[in-house]
Amino acid sequence: MRPAADRDAWLAALGLVRWERRQAAVDGAPAGAAEAVTAPGPAPAVAEPLDPGHLDWPALRACVADCTRCELHRGRTRTVFGVGSETADWLIVGEAPGAEEDRRGEPFVGRAGQLLNAMLAAIGLSRESVFIANVLKCRPPNNRDPSAEEAAACRPYLERQIELLRPRLILAVGRVAAQHLLETTTPLGRLRGQVHRHPRGDVPVVVTYHPAYLLRSPADKARAWEDLLLACRTAAGVAP
Ligand code: URA
What we know:
6 strands; alpha/beta; 10 helices; binds uracil; six-stranded mixed beta sheet; single chain; Uracil-DNA Glycosylase, subunit E
């Protein structure tokens, strides 16, 4: 953890300086009301099976860079493999690259990325010390939700990233990442506040809001802070 003054500065950046009042203000909100919930469609049909289980980091990176498994490859500028430490204890999983990420080939580099960096800093983590990836490695047009087919086509890449990294904790940011990782249609509000296990690999998964959502709904930053504390306890082995 960072020194208290440093941490307070980051908490201020997160808008959490008035912790008690904000907490009281959001208590009345119904669980799960915060993010719009759309159940994913029917089970997707993946065109060709892919088993990248033998690939190391450079080979997996090259495989993603050449991927044409779904139509999104036609519109991309670059694939967005992920960024950070390949020996990180924490894996942060978001939804899909946006316009800026597509241009730069790096996840979470826009405004949402700045808030994600602040959230990590508030718990003493730098962007470089974690690994950050997305469910999709290519940008969906107009930032729409990933389709079931796209998510299924991309799934082997994220699963291999999890295998290679063997993180102590996965932090799923937003509904799409959480539902995809946990293979569920349960609303985000009901997935928060507990420690899940990734269906393959038994890695603990903690769910929180997407930073882009928090930019629109700053009152929920207090809840996100609770999620981060749960994630810290889980990574430290003091939560179930
Ligand atoms: N939102 C995401 O989910 N991922 C990114 O990389 C950027 C924005």
